[in-house]
Amino acid sequence: MISTTIQYLARDELYDIEKPYSADFEIEERKSIKRSNYILSTEPVSIHAIGSSDHFHLDTHGFCTINAKTSLSVHDALSQPEAVETAYFDEIEAILHDRFPEYSRFEGIEFVVRKRDDRFPSDEVAIVTHEQPACLAHSDYSNAGALLQLSASFPGQEEHFKDKEYDIIK
């Protein structure tokens, strides 16, 4: 076990009227325009090694781990992400169909390649070649956010997910 701290967005009244945001590009800050409206809260946490991944199940714990091999190389992912995305998604889809035969359909929503820049983390605005690791503990999708993401990712296909059960697996 490791004892450490993690930064979370603070529960603040500001977020009742304004969605939390942070720009990853330089802007001219003024009184009404800021690069970020994050109000952070540092919380102590205990981190435990997962150990055997067989103990975690999607239906019970909300997550699971899958140890699988793909043909995607780190070099290809970093140098030509758009070119390898379709083949990688095809491999991931086959792995997921094997692991979750109860699902009838898998659709890739996004393919993001992250590589930590030597300056990360930093308040310095810099041009980097890849997206950086997430700085805050976060959940990618709320129930309402999932519907917005699906509608944006698959326009005109709402009949496939509206009023139906689905999972967003990350």
Report how far the terminal alpha carbons are from each other: 25 Å
Strand content: 5-15%
Low-confidence stretches: none
Class from secondary-structure proportions: alpha+beta
Largest sheet: 2 strands, antiparallel
Radius of gyration: 19 Å
Report strand order across the widest sheet.
Answer: 1-2
Sum up the overall morphology in one term.
globular
Kindly state the percentage of residues in helix.
25-40%
Report the count of strand segments: 2
Mean pLDDT: 83
* Topology order in helix (H) and strand (E) letters: EHEHHHH
Q: Total helix count? A: 5
Which short descriptors sum up this protein?
170 residues, alpha+beta, globular
Structure description:
It is a single chain. By secondary structure, the chain is of the alpha+beta class. The chain has 5 helices and 2 strands; from the N terminus they run βαβαααα. It has helices at 14-17, 58-61, 74-79, 81-99, 143-153, and strands at 2-9, 40-47. A two-stranded antiparallel sheet has the order 1-2. It is globular. The mean pLDDT is 83.
